[in-house]
Structure formats: C-alpha cells, structure tokens
C-alpha cells in the first residue's frame, strides 16, 4: 500500500470507533439477505422461462379439451351419416360383383 491509501485506511478505522450505532448499521452488508434475494430472482427467472416454454408448446402442440371433444363428435356424426347413407344391397368391400 502506498502512503496515501494507508493513511486513509487508518483514518477510516479510527473513525469507525466514533460512529454511532445507526451509522454502523448502514455499512453492514447482510449477506443472508443478499443470497436470498439472488435465489428468489433465479427462481423467478426459471419460472418465467418455464412458462414461456409452456406457452410455446401450447401453440405448437396443444389443443384445448373442447377442441378435441368437438373434433371427436364431428367425426362420430360424419360416421353415423355415412352409415345411414349406405345402400343395403351394396357389397361390404365396396366392389360390385361382376357377372361373367
């Protein structure tokens, strides 16, 4: 240390003895609180990233339950209509028999 830094350090140490309790509290760093703050921010960032990923997956893959149910009911209705429109004398495989 050079002479200037050493003298200022000595002055700071000597002044601390004369500081009131309130002044000392302002200079104290609460590392537990700082760690907690950092941890909570990391957790919030992780939740935000997961929510963004979930939204992207919903857009990419998802359909609501109502949409799935509507599609299923629509398919069942079409199947019933086709079954009702079939002719009784039509063969099962759909290929008419040829008379030779």
CA-based gyration radius = 39 Å
Strand content: under 5%
**Separation of the first and last Cα atoms:** 115 Å
Q: How many strands, which pairing sense, and closed or not: the largest β-sheet?
A: none
Q: Please, how many helices?
A: 4
Oligomer: single chain
Q: Give the helix proportion (percent range).
A: over 70%
Global structural class = mainly alpha
Give the overall shape: rod-shaped
How does this model look, in words?
The termini are far apart. The mean pLDDT is 78. The protein has four helices and no strands. It has a domain at 29-85. The longest helix is centred in the middle third of the chain and has 30 residues, at 31-60. 73% of the residues lie in helices and 0% in strands. It has helices at 3-17, 21-27, 31-60, 65-85. The chain is an all-alpha fold. The chain is rod-shaped and about 105 Å long.
């Amino acid at each position: 240390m050079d002479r200037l830094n050493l003298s200022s350090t000595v002055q700071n140490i000597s002044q601390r003895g004369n500081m009131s309790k309130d002044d000392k509290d302002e200079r104290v760093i609460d590392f537990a609180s700082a760690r907690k703050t950092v941890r909570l921010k990391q957790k919030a960032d992780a939740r935000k990233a997961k929510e963004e990923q979930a939204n992207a997956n919903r857009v990419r893959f998802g359909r609501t339950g109502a949409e799935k149910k509507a599609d299923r009911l629509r398919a069942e209705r079409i199947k019933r209509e086709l079954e009702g429109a079939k002719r009784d004398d039509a063969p099962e495989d759909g290929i008419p028999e040829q008379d030779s």
